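Problem statement: downstream parser choked on a complex file, so we are re-checking the raw output for the S-adenosyl-L-homocysteine run. The parser issue turned out to be on our end (a line-ending mismatch), but while we're here, posting the original submission so the record is complete.
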Amino acid sequence: MTRENDRERLVEVLSRSERIHRESVLEAIGAVPRHEFVPDSHTQQAYHDRPLPIGHGQTISAPHMVAIMTDRLALSPEDRVLEIGTGCGYHAAVVAEIVDTTVYSVEFQPELAESAQRQLDRLGYDVTVTAGDGHDGWPEHAPYDAAYLTCATPELPDPIVEQIATGGRIVAPVGTGRQQLLIAEKESDGSLTRRTDGYVQFVPMRG
Ligand code: SAH
């Protein structure tokens, strides 16, 4: 079952919300089989716009949040992207629909890293997952044009900021307690221009 109609309806909901500005993001959401990433117990709800459990006390973000974060990354096909917090791999698959190069993703929980890599490979997504602490970023593949975190941090870890190219973007839930979605861009002097885009709720970054 491909669930194309369910995805079309979800894209309509997101499109009507007027919070997603890039057609490429809506197309990506319309293409990625979210039901392949959620546990069997939740495949019926796979195309509802809400977070779902993925085991190990973690959740897959609601589709609108994946779409907003991806939209704000302002991706071009040639961009190199770093993800911190692979989870089940759904968000990485959405990004992989937009960019032409490998997406690099770091996941703290080894079992999740392994199962996400397996599923992404099976579905043919060009994503390379490593198990590790995302506080260090992934220096081997830097510099990145864009990076995003799917777990909340009090402040952006310095290594991640260092691994971003000039003009690159970082999107991350930032804050303890009340979190805000931070959208940052790296200037030529290495500093970050920052703005926030609403309150969000993500699992805290571990490690
Ligand atoms: N984007 C994911 C959502 C993942 S939820 C998806 O589409 O499913 C957040 C993830 O961040 C969890 O899998 C959690 O294990 C991971 N995480 C938490 N702390 C981390 C850290 N320090 N480094 C890397 N990943 C981390």
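For whoever reads this later: Helices lie at 4-16, 23-31, 63-72, 90-98, 110-123, 158-162.
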